[in-house]
Amino acid sequence: MPALLNCTDTSISASCCTLHQVRNHEAVAKFALRGAGRPGPRPVSAPLSDPTARPALEHMDAMDAALRHVVHAMLVGVEAKQLSPQALQVGGVGCM
User: Fold this and answer.
1) Residue 89 included in any domain
2) CB 31 within 8 A of CB 22
3) What's residue 96's pLDDT?
4) Four-point Cα dihedral 35, 40, 46, 47, nearest 10
5) pLDDT tens by residue, the chain, 96 residues
6) How far is CA 85 from CA 43, 65, 89, in A?
7) Left, alpha or beta for 77 (phi > 0: left; psi -120 to 50: alpha)?
8) Residue range of the domain that includes 62
9) Contact 33/55 with Cβ under 8 angstroms?
10) Is 45 exposed, middle or buried (0-12, 13-18, 19+ CB in 10 A)?
11) What are the CA-CA distances from residue 57 to residues 2, 36, 43, 54 (Å)?
12) What are the residues facing 54 on neighbouring strands?
């Protein structure tokens, strides 16, 4: 198993990245939600890289769903994902 965590081999990089995302999904979702959240207590020159930013946790379910679609596409390929019954649909609640 340790060889799988070596993400330098391009033939396994998508699978490796996907494995990390699945194992660490909550932290990845919180990190992704920092841009939509509130600034942290100390001023920074690059707000989206603010390590103390408070993530917009009210959007956690939507972010989790979006990241699951990304991981699925990484595993099966974008074309196969879009042709599958689990393809991401445009429209519906909260979509443009």
Assistant:
1) no
2) no
3) 39
4) 30
5) 333 445 555 556 666 777 767 778 888 889 889 888 998 888 878 777 788 889 999 999 999 888 888 888 888 888 888 888 877 666 555 443
6) 45, 15, 10
7) left
8) 2-83
9) yes
10) exposed
11) 33, 9, 21, 8
12) 38
22 near 5, Cβ under 8 Å? Answer: no
Cα–Cα distance, 80 to 77 (Å, whole number): 5
User: How confident is the model at residue 94, as a pLDDT?
Assistant: 46
Would you call 56 exposed, middle or buried from its count of C-beta atoms within 10 A (0-12, 13-18, 19+)?
middle
Residue with tokens 């379910």: 61
Q: Is residue 90 part of a domain?
A: no
User: What size, in residues, is the chain?
Assistant: 96
Q: Which two tokens stand for residue 89?
A: 């649909």
What's the domain count of the chain?
1
